[in-house]
Amino acid sequence: MIPFVIVKTKTGFAYVRPEHVVAINATDAAECMILMTDGVTITAAEPAEDVVARLEAEARDEDEAAETVKERT
Questions:
Q1: What is the Cα–Cα distance from 29 to 25, expressed in whole angstroms?
Q2: What does the alpha-carbon distance between residue 42 and residue 62 come to, in Å, rounded to a whole number?
Q3: Of these four, 17, 31, 32, 42, which has the most CB atoms within 10 Å of its CB?
Q4: Residue 4 to residue 33: CA distance in whole angstroms
Q5: pTM of the full predicted structure?
Q6: Tens of pLDDT along 12-58?
Q7: 3 state SS of 44
Q8: Residues 48/37, Cβ–Cβ less than 8 Å
């Protein structure tokens, strides 16, 4: 299953696939802009540091899962 990261927006929540995130622009201390592939942008109503931390944690989890599968084969 493809993992999603939940991002809080002004109108609710967005579910983001980490592999489609290109960059995160910190607009101010409480908001950020998530730039994704194909020119999609999401305005998040939370600090960039929080979003980046969740994306990095998901990437680590995926790396660990891939390494576990590799070790089993």
A1: 11
A2: 23
A3: 32
A4: 17
A5: 0.82
A6: 999 999 999 999 999 899 999 999 999 999 999 999 999 999 999 98
A7: strand
A8: no
> What is the length of the chain?
73
How far, rounded to the nearest angstrom, does the alpha carbon of residue 7 sit from its chain's CA centroid?
8
Q: How far is CA 37 from the centre of its chain?
A: 12
Nearby residues of 36 by Cβ (< 8 Å), 6 or more positions away: 16, 20, 21, 22, 42
Position 70 scores a pLDDT of 80
Helix (H, G, I), strand (E, B) or coil at 40: coil
Site of tokens 């995160």: 24
Cα gap 59→16, rounded to integer Å: 13
Amino acid making up residue 18: P
Q: How far apart are CA 73 and CA 61, in angstroms?
A: 19
